[in-house]
């Protein structure tokens, strides 16, 4: 469709600043709205062939979906890809931002963000809620252990036989609950920290069960089962990959997918000089963290195929490709260790390749 009017929206929690720009006449029209998609759509309908855009951010996809439902073509622009002229950096207002968006849309320089449907976004929110619950468990355990340390209680590193002792096991919990504080206030504080850890663990287990149940749904199960064939990836990580990506085939290549994750090396090259640094970290933080965690499995993994669990349905071609990927990643990790690369650097390189194998398997499932 050929658009005539381009509308920039500067969106806030309770207000929207709009600017309509006609590149053929150079005319601009501005309006201010409360957060009311119907009013914005009605105003936009008064222009010829309108198209709207607003920046990605905390306001999410709600406004875009509502405007599309009301008949106004709306896209979300990736804020990380928008660069304002240096002269405008110290002159920031909502009106100027809306006009800037409208003109960028007219120039076709807006990098559009993929807008998931409500079902996909709900699954994504559940996956991220589980990640938050895991962080809460870690924080609660940290507060409890440091409270005990401040009061002179440190769990022995070795047992009576000289063997290393792991924390947060049954014996560790028995040790914690056997501690007696002399002051009543100190006992109450200890009970509070113990209760917070136990409640956080229960909430995490509850969310894990809900994620596993959601992953069994017909929309997610084929990709989840296929991705689980890769070592280091189980239901939770596979489900997060599936709902966060919402279609692996929308990426033209494995390199494009790993770049979207921000797990590719940064670069600073000019002329004959070539310089590469750490990973860009400019993409999906949630998936990047999960893949880096999954990659640690390849430091001591075998080259054998991963066992298929009960109820897991996978095409034989996918299984063969996953086995090929596992062997490649194990060999790659051994080569990096042999070259005496730092473990964190080697693991990050494996995570990048693991992302590429995930993309390949996801595309195979979608093409089936």
Question: How does this model look, in words?
Answer:
It is a single chain. The protein has 368 residues and is of the alpha/beta class. It folds into three domains: 5-106, YqgF/RNase H-like domain (Nucleotidyltransferase, domain 5, 2-Layer Sandwich); 118-215; 221-367, no CATH class. Helices cover 51% and strands 11% of the residues. The chain has twelve helices and seven strands. The protein has helices spanning 37-44, 62-69, 94-106, 118-150, 170-177, 184-215, 221-227, 235-245, 254-261, 285-295, 316-338, 343-367; strands spanning 5-11, 15-21, 28-34, 50-55, 73-77, 265-267, 276-279. The strands form two sheets. Strands 3-2-1-4-5 form a five-stranded mixed beta sheet. Strands 6-7 form a two-stranded antiparallel ribbon. Strand 1 and strand 2 (15-21) form a beta hairpin. Helix 4 (118-150) crosses helix 8 (235-245) and helix 11 (316-338) runs antiparallel to helix 12 (343-367). The longest helix has 33 residues, at 118-150. It is globular and about 85 Å long. It starts with a strand and ends with a helix. The model has no long low-confidence stretch (mean pLDDT 93).
């Amino acid at each position: 469709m050929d658009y005539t009017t381009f509308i920039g929206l500067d969106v806030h929690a309770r207000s929207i600043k709009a600017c309509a720009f006609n590149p053929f006449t150079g005319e601009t029209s501005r309006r201010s709205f409360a957060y009311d998609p119907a009013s914005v759509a009605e105003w936009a309908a008064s222009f010829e062939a309108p198209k709207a855009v607003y920046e990605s951010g905390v306001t999410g996809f709600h406004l875009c979906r509502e405007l599309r439902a009301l008949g106004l073509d709306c896209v979300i622009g990736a804020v990380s890809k928008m660069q304002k002229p240096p002269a405008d950096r110290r002159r920031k207002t909502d009106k100027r931002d809306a006009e800037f968006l409208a003109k960028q849309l007219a120039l076709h320089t807006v990098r559009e963000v993929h807008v998931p449907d409500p079902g996909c976004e709900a699954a994504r929110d559940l996956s991220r809620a589980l990640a938050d619950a895991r962080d809460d468990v870690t924080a609660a355990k940290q507060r409890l252990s440091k409270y005990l340390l401040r009061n002179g209680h440190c769990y022995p590193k070795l047992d009576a036989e000289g063997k290393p002792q792991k924390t947060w096991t049954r014996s560790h919990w028995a040790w914690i609950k056997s501690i007696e504080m002399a002051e009543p206030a100190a006992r109450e504080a200890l009970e509070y920290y113990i209760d917070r850890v136990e409640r956080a663990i229960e909430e995490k287990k509850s969310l894990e069960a809900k994620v596993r149940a959601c992953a069994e749904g017909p929309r997610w199960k084929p990709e989840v089962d296929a991705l689980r064939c890769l070592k280091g990836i189980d239901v939770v990580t596979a489900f997060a990959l599936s709902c966060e990506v919402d279609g692996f085939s929308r990426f033209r290549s494995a390199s494009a997918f790993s770049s979207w994750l921000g797990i590719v090396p940064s670069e600073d090259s000019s002329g004959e000089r070539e310089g590469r640094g750490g990973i860009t970290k400019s993409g999906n933080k949630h998936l990047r963290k999960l893949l880096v965690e999954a990659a640690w499995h390849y430091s001591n993994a075998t080259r054998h195929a991963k066992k298929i669990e009960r109820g897991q349905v996978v095409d034989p071609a996918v299984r063969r490709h996953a086995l090929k990927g596992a062997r490649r990643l194990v060999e790659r990790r051994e080569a990096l260790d042999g070259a005496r690369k730092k473990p964190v650097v080697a693991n990050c390189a494996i995570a990048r390749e693991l992302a590429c194998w995930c993309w390949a398997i996801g595309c195979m499932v979608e093409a089936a």
